[in-house]
Amino acid sequence: MTIRTRLAVRFMLLASFILGGAFMVVYYLSADYREEEFRGRLKDRGTNTAKLLIQVDEVDTLLLWKIEHDNPVRLPEESIRIYDHHNKLLFTLGEDDMFAIAPSFLDSVRLEGEIDRTFNDREETGFVFRDRYDRFVVVASARDIYGRSKLKNEGRVMLGTFLLAQILIFLIGRFYAQRALAPVQRLVHELQDIGAADLSRRVEPGDARDELGQLARSFNELLDRLQTAFQTQKHFIANASHEMRTPLTAISGQLDVILLRERSPEEYARAIRSVQEDMHALNQLADRLLLMAQAENKVTASSFTAVRVDEVLWSARSEVLRTAPGYAVEVDLLDVEDADELVCKGNENLLRSMFGNLIENACKYSDDHRALVRLRVSGKHIAVEVEDKGIGIAPGDMERVFEPFFRANNTGGAKGHGIGLSLARRIAELHGGRITLVSCPGEGSCFTAHLSRT
Ligand code: ADP
After folding, report:
1. What are phi and psi of 328, to 5 degrees?
2. pLDDT tens, per residue, the chain with 454 residues
3. I need a surface site. Which of 211, 285, 343, 357 has the fewest CB within 10 A?
4. What is the Å distance from ligand 1's center to 193 Cα?
């Protein structure tokens, strides 16, 4: 069911509830009024007849019968009966043989003063009529043919009006729902026209202040983010392919040259070492890209375990020194009294890679190839500072060094692919932390990874 029809149906149901309720109240009030009014007339007729019979000496039962029989104000199918205190029938008029009055009913009337009842569409009222010396029971009954048919008619008119109103309300509701939803329809069509290849298009916000304007603006913001993400992804793939192609081209070039003619064992050994170096760079790149993908997709906070930061740091240091034995890394556990203070929730592999990147860079981009690592704990906060006295980073590049594949002009001949720092920042963010940088060209840099203790 479309929202338009759903809205119209709900509108109709609500209106039918209110209208139906109002009609029912009116109908029951009318029915109540008809009954009350007719009983009043019945009682008046009974009282007048009893007064004539009991209080006017000149009137006997025969005369009364004649008077009442031809009375033009007689009610339809009227019957009036008057009983004395022995339940003896003193006077009867009308359909007397049709309805037998039980003595128990007369006793109940004497007890309660008045009893009203309805049977076979006839209204009947029994009441006590008091004379100076005696008490009589008057039972008057008649059929309210006119009142009942009027009520039935009213009911029919109400039902007809109700059904007609339902149809009208449904149609009007649908019409208004259609008008109200027309801008949404327009938005849907505009969005349907926007394909993945054409993310630069935006939807028309219309009246910017209403909810639909807000929705259109939210869509446009979403499209902005999608476009940026698509472009970043495209650049990332292009950069990654380029970074992979460079060592591959170098390897195949070297192999082609070496195979041109017969070489001495030393030349073969040199060529193999060079290919090995390129293979190592390729391997490192593949590892980092894999870690990046892992950090983006697979790792969630729910898979984190308790990790000792100092242990991960030592293992990252060993790994760096294994691949580059010429580097020197000093670790200083400042003010750390209890090893339990150094536990944080995280992914050990990713944290090792983050520290490894920072340590490797510090050694790589300094002439003395030395890095000083300091570990500080304060409250719930663990800070790992990786400092070097190297080439430093220009202020304009300080933020850009965290972008994927960005390499500053300061690298000289140092090998690298420009993804170590972007991966490190992503890993820190995944752990609810961040990486800050203080650097001065020619003096050195200090990268600090901020993490939270458990
Ligand atoms: P890579 O080192 O492979 O080039 P990174 O993402 O690790 O890639 O670093 C990006 C860039 O940031 C480097 O190319 C370098 O220009 C700069 N950089 C990173 N660490 C340092 C450092 N300790 N000192 C000076 N420059 C650095």
Report:
1. -125, 125
2. 788 888 888 989 999 999 999 999 999 999 999 999 999 999 999 999 999 998 888 888 888 888 888 888 889 999 999 999 899 999 988 865 556 788 999 999 999 999 999 988 899 999 999 988 889 999 999 999 999 999 999 999 999 999 999 999 999 999 998 888 888 888 888 888 887 667 788 888 776 678 888 888 888 899 899 888 888 888 888 888 988 898 899 999 999 999 999 999 999 999 999 999 889 889 988 988 888 887 777 677 778 899 999 999 999 999 999 989 999 999 998 777 787 888 999 999 999 999 999 999 999 999 999 999 999 998 899 999 999 999 999 999 999 999 988 999 888 888 888 989 999 999 999 999 999 999 999 999 999 999 998 8
3. 211
4. 43
Ligand 1 neighbours by CB, cut-off 6 Å: 357, 361-362, 365, 388, 390-393, 401, 406-408, 410-411, 416-422, 445
In Å, how far are 40, 138, 252 from 141, measured between CA atoms? 11, 10, 119
**Residue 162 parent element (H or E):** helix 145-193
**Distance, CA 412 to ligand 1 centroid (Å)?**
11
Looking at ligand 1, which atom is closest to the CA of residue 402? Answer: 6
Residue for token pair 């090995």: 276
